Sequence to fold (729 residues):
Amino acid sequence: MPGARIAARGWGYRYPGRPQALAGVSFDVRPGELVVLAGASGSGKSTLLGALAGTLPVGGSTGSLDVEATAPAGSLPVGLVQQEPESNIVMERVGDDVAFPLESAAVPPARIWSRVDAMLRIVGLDEERGVGPDRPTIRLSGGQQQLLAVGAACAADPALVLLDEPTANLDPESAAAVVGAVAAARAGSGSTVVVIEHRVEPWLALADRVLLSAHGTVSAHRPGDLPGLVASDPDLAGRVWLDHAHLPRRVPGDRPGAAVLEARGVTVPGRLPPTSLTVRAGEVVALTGPPGSGKSTLLSCLAGLLAPGHGTVLVRWAGGQDLDPWSWPAARIAEVFGIVFQDPEHQFLTGRVADELRHGLLGAGLPDTEVGARVDAMLRRLRLGALAQANPFTLSGGEQRRLSVGTALVRDPGILLLDEPTFGQDPATWAEVVDIIGAHRDAGGSVVLATHDPHLVTSLGARVLPLPGPGPTRAGPSRPGRQPVAAGRDSRTGTASGLRRLDPLVLVTAAALLSAAALISRSVGVNLGLAAVAVLAALLGGLAPRQVGLLAIPAGLAAASVALSNALLSQSGITSPLAWQAAALPATRVLAVALPGLVAAIALDPTALADSLVVRLRVPARAAYSVLAGLRLLPLLADEWAILGRASRARGIGGAGPAARARQFTSMAFRLLVAALRRAGRLAVALDVRGLRSGSDRTVARPVTAGWVDAAAMVGGVLALAGALATRL
Fold:
């Protein structure tokens, strides 16, 4: 059968420097079965999934865990969705990311794009939902990244599909799309599926067995036995989401008080439409809406971490009021707001769990005894006492989320701004988080939370502000400053306009020929002509005039600097016309050398370049696409730096003085290094699981062809070089 077979016999695993994660695990999974892996937060579920995927560090296992995953032609052995949505993406465009595993499975190019389009429709990322195959992956929200990861994992009909909380960041409609996509992939290919979920109900109708992770081991059960087990075992009821009747209700008893936070027409172009909101004391407001609707963006604007394009925010606190908290110092933001980010790792500052909570109390003026008491109390409430000395980055996703909630609450701020505060929680820890939020509200505090959890909204009696989802636009931007190049390429057909119509190798070669001609030329007129050719090619090739102007500024400044230097050093003096005539040649040379390369760099399609290197120059696919995936991380690290800056403000780090700025820079630089290393490790896992292995056969989804335009560009480059050589005769 095409599905994978799994057999565990006394298997266990221990991470370096940590207690035993799992021990004595024994179970069997037959080909084609769907298995739900459930259990408490931090009980070892992701560890077992990592072992099945082959991604755990070597050396910590005992016993045996055998996976037989034989992939027929056109499929892959394993499809994996990691817990962090961004970690699953390897390509620059949505369609290319789903096509990548199909290329690795050597699916004929003629069949790839129909399968990509079908998968994007299934997971809700097609053009009708405002995304489509040409949407840059960098412009996806966290929920959209989750949907894309599921689509890519299932696209190549893998023998084994491993999913780590695939619906955690999704609204009910999108979560249902994920369940449907997995069911369709399983029905079409016979895949074996292992899915980690806290909320197991949507999966039980499809499941063949349930694996429960508890007390350091894993036990196997039939799905039909689970309701009886939960009903008879209160401890199990706190570990598995099945019966919601026992969930706590923290509905407010009093009417909300005076307004403490107001947003008036707050807008972030491409990310948040004009939005107004009033939050009162003793009130919880829930921001809801599909992935990409701007919930996280609105929270950042309210917290003073992101300045909107338009609109104002009014904060009333401590008997006063002030506008636009993004102009406040960091210490004041940390005093007024308790903030939880969508990715908890962004806000961690120390190497120990207890120190993270202790850092939140810096500057509060509390005696050491009270600081220690608050930290210990928060550790107990969040069930993190046993992990007080652990590194925050080694915690499970659910444990990291609880720690991030604790850092926001430990100082008891007036306003809580929480992004998915119940992500990754089992019923017991979920109830504790709800109780903490409810207690803050009942004490007169205000809460704004972004959530896809309808039970959280109901339990807290929250007032709902629904945000509309993105409209059916094609590849509209969702991050300011990242506008698409006008010259584009249709990923499904390979057709392109402007400079991207050229083969990338031809584009690079033609630009190199123009730059070489400028280096050789001894004529100011020829150099100016070469620079004019580069500018004209950019304008006719689809680059916007503003982009061309931005390219010309650094080249023009460099040329002016060279001209001035040569004139100053001239023996005839800077006021002599002869001095400036002599300076014109090196200055125009700099201009003509720089412009072709800058234009090519902006117009170049990195994915098409990697395809061309593999097809034309026979560069090993692993090398070409690993570099491409790595290049994709560069703008992400720039975004990461901005997010870390906002997280630093949220934790009270920063200031106007040189010492404060130096501390903030040092902290951010170290955290960025950690983030880059972790991203690189997860990217390597994603590439490996998607079939990028040395020596394996691959196809290329987009055609790599050459036409008369490529020939004309090469001829033009050669003629330019010949003309420059003629100036030396």
